[in-house]
Amino acid sequence: MRLSKPILVFLAAAILLTSFGCASSTPTSTPTPTPTATVSATPSPSPTPTTPPPPTSIRLGVFIPGRLGDSPPYDALADGAQRAALRDKRLTVEIFEAGFDQSKWLEQLTSFAASGKFDVIYTSNEALGPLVVKVTQTVPNVKFLVNDSYVTGNKNIFTAFLNKYQQGYLYGYMMALVSTSTLPGANPDKKIGLIYGQHYTMMDDLIIPGIEAGAKAVDPAFELKTAMLGNWFDAVKAESLANSLIDEGVDCLGAIAGSGNAGVVSAAVKRNAYMIWFDTIGFDKAPGTVIGSVNSSNEDLVTLELKNLLDGTVTWGGPLIVGAEQGYISVPLLAPGYVNFVPADAQKKFAEVYEKVVSGALALPVPQAILDKLDNAAKGN
Ligand code: RBF
Question: CB-hemisphere CA count at 13 Å for 127?
């Protein structure tokens, strides 16, 4: 059948309109779709709201509450910001490492913000939510991006929160599969272990309960033995804590202790125990000992947030929560450090649960009560 010329012109116009419609959709900082502008046939009498133009320059200060080097969320911040500045000349970046004395952070952050050198300050960890709220009261002309934190309704603050319950669940599930496997050194005890830096809501109410739930999904008899390091740097103490857990029958360990993690690796290597890495790919730390990894895509989060910042589309005051469903919690199932060491049946069982978490068939949301707790703590309620 031949189509007449007017029909062809109409079809071509329709295709063009559809493709322009797709190309013009702007990225948003939330994974949920935002309403798109509708085009009406008759001109609207009221003026169409215009989005403000993107910024012409942004002076970004990166505030690291600790030290760079072995802390995945911080390393991703500094690295991601520096890379963004290479791609976009409107962005300049200055990084400040505040160190481990948490009692000094408020004062350090206040002077960093009040220096007049920055339009936006980028930082990370749950304790920074409350500090940033305080600083916005004395320094109102600076905006803050805070990862691993949750604060609502403040027009100078944007927080992003990775689903650490989900990440903990996958972590515990993988540790328990390794512990029940036929690997040499895996014992019959249903015990896995975790060395962590300090108590905080994300650890106590999300990561640890997540690990327990994941391990119990493998076998309800599983027990998680934990030991708190009390800081984020003491590898010698971390090694001795890991040794105590191994003495108690733990054969697979996790570590969320910054530079302290090196001590856990050391104990695991010497005692023929196994480790699963948290947040980054950690096989190179000790191949054959670190045999799995459950990651947070902090770099992707930083890239997204800085893109939104440069596009002028950050939804200030509205927190973002992302997880495995959006690709921000992930597991390298094909990595040689995993495939070559973890028995095939354990890999298969893990892949099944992982697929369910990614597809949303196994929903493991962050409970709203925990988010409210963080929000209230930030606001001093
Ligand atoms: N994680 C690190 O890897 N290194 C650190 O130095 C570090 N310091 C923290 C300090 C405080 C007060 C809090 C609340 C968390 C800290 N974290 C640190 C944990 C970090 O925010 C995150 O929860 C873990 O890295 C797991 O993703």
Answer: 16
Lining residues, ligand 1, CB within 6 Å: 65-66, 71-73, 102, 125-127, 148, 197, 200, 202, 232, 256, 258, 279, 296
Q: Tokens 């695991």 label which residue?
A: 268
Rounding to the nearest 10 degrees, give the CA dihedral for residues 62, 66, 71, 75: 20
pLDDT tens readout for residues 116-170 = 999 999 999 999 999 999 999 999 999 999 999 999 999 999 999 999 999 999 9
Other CB atoms within a 10 A radius of the CB of residue 365 amount to 14
**Region at 185 (left for phi over 0; alpha for psi -120 to 50; beta for the rest):** left
For 186, list phi and psi in degrees, rounded to 5.
-75, 125
**Any idea which fold 165-296+329-364 has?**
Rossmann fold (3.40.50)
| Cα-to-centroid distance, 208 and ligand 1 (Å) | 14
- Helical segments of 272-327, H only: 298-311
Sign of CA dihedral 27, 31, 33, 35: negative
Which two structure tokens, joined as six digits, stand for 262?
A: 């090196």
Q: Which of 258, 253, 256 is nearest to 234 (CA)?
A: 258
Threshold 0.90, pTM exceeds: no
The residue extents of the domains of the chain are: 165-296+329-364
